[in-house]
Design goal:
Layout: H1 5-17, H2 20-27, H3 31-45, H4 60-89, E1 94-98, H5 100-117, E2 123-127, H6 130-138, E3 144-148, E4 158-173, H7 177-180, E5 194-195, H8 206-214, H9 222-230, E6 235-239, E7 250-253, E8 261-269, H10 276-291
Parallel strand pairs: 1-2, 1-3, 5-6
Antiparallel strand pairs: 3-8, 4-6, 4-7, 4-8
């Protein structure tokens, strides 16, 4: 007998409750029916999933099977949801894993634009850092991701295209020495406590490098970085999009001297065929970035962005 989705659901319920009777009650079935389903699953696998008949402790196979079953059920439910959404909207849905700062700056306007074209398209935005975004794209739990340039390799089946480029600057309190200074240089960082994030390492300046080495605070979330600065913990180096939407107590300043830029990438899984909704979303994303003047301009990335192999 082939393994059925229902078997996996029953197994997950029993494993999570640790009790056959409780699982049966939650499933709306009798304990004997649930027990029979588990027995069929174990017979199919050829090994036990639980150490005892009490079903309160998993075997090594059971622990592995539980994670795989959860993943399979989640994928199944997402597939059913996608089919329903496609039928409802005629274009499908859009699932995006995105850096929080880019999400804050771009996604509200993009969602409004796509709903102006088709209000029935479901847009799912998940804020997360680069590595988590890549894992979601790898596992095909999202359609596209938006990540920083630093770790776009090492993930099989993931393709990428330059999405936007913004200039780095210093984020600080407006009423502070750096905030009031008439002309700002990267070397001025040497007099401040630097709140480090991974993007700081893109700044090839000796004073910044020393400030990174001397720092005892590392914060990745743009929202948290702002909170640390407001608390007087120091200053930080962030891309322009982070500095584009600030309250009056903070200021984003680009130092004189060499200009350093961040390139963010659109990433997708080459095995995941994009829906019309995803293609529409990517085209609107490209238009929005062009309107903001953030289109990448480096010589090696000036080529048209044929995103997902279908967007023109």
């Amino acid at each position: 007998m082939a393994i059925k989705t229902e078997m996996l659901r029953y197994f997950i319920e029993v494993a999570e409750t640790g009790n056959l009777s409780k699982a049966a009650e939650r499933l709306g079935r009798t304990p004997s029916a649930v027990s029979m389903m588990l027995k069929q699953l174990e017979e199919n696998l050829g090994a036990p999933l639980f150490e005892t008949d009490r079903k309160n402790r998993l075997t090594d196979l059971g622990a592995f099977a539980l994670e795989e079953a959860r993943r399979e059920i989640a994928h199944f439910e997402q597939t059913i949801s996608a089919m329903h959404r496609f039928a409802e909207s005629g274009e499908g849905q859009v699932r995006v894993a995105c850096l929080p700062a880019i999400s804050t700056a771009l996604m509200p306007d993009l969602t409004t634009k796509i709903h102006s074209a088709n209000p029935k398209i479901l847009v799912r935005i998940r804020d997360m850092l680069t590595e988590a975004c890549l894992m979601e794209v790898r596992d095909q739990t999202v359609d596209i991701g938006i990540v920083n340039q630093f770790i776009i390799t090492g993930f099989s089946n993931i393709k990428s295209a330059p999405l936007l480029s913004d200039v780095f600057g210093i984020l600080c309190l407006r009423d502070s020495p750096l905030g009031r200074k008439e002309t700002l240089y990267w070397s001025d960082i040497s007099h401040e406590n630097l709140i480090v994030n991974d993007l700081c390492y893109a700044i090839e300046d000796p004073a910044v490098r020393k400030a990174i080495t001397d720092s005892h605070v590392n914060v990745e979330s743009a929202l948290s970085i702002k909170a640390f600065i407001r608390a007087g913990a120091g200053v930080s180096i962030v891309p322009g999009l982070v500095g584009s939407q600030l309250a009056k107590d903070l200021v984003f300043r680009v130092p004189e001297g060499p200009e350093f830029r961040r390139t963010a990438y659109l990433v997708w899984n080459e095995n995941n065929h994009p829906s019309p909704a995803v293609i529409r979303f990517c085209n609107l994303l490209r238009e929005t970035i062009e309107e903001l003047g953030l289109t990448p301009t480096d010589e090696d990335i000036r080529k048209p962005l044929h995103w997902l192999g279908v967007v023109r």
